[in-house]
Amino acid sequence: MKIQEWWPLVTAETRNWLIAHNGEPLTQAVSAEILSATRGATESGWWAGESADGPQLTDAAVDWIETIANGEDPAPIE
To answer: Which of 4, 17, 43, 46 has its CA 20 to 30 A from that of 54?
Structure first.
């Protein structure tokens, strides 16, 4: 599932956290909600995997979220 597909499926609280903490490792709660929305699926376009600090989104996903935060219409991540 692409980020543009799961983004509206997570709560506003999670979307707000992703915007406020864009580029930071995900919290367990945020990660769990994303994985629940995607039924556990991850895609290389938005999921960078685990780091020592926690799960990470890709640079493309971080840019996509920044575009959303700026009120712009982001291009889909393939």
So the answer is: 4
Tokens of 37: 């929305």
Distance CA 45, CA 36 (A): 18
1: Cβ–Cβ under 8 A, 6 or more apart, which residues? Answer: 37, 38, 39, 41, 43
| Residue 17 identity (one-letter amino acid) | W
3-state secondary structure of 30: helix
Q: Using the predicted structure, report yes or no on whether residue 35 has a pLDDT greater than 80.
A: yes
**What is this structure's pTM?**
0.93
List CB contacts of 71: < 8 A, sequence separation 6 or more.
none
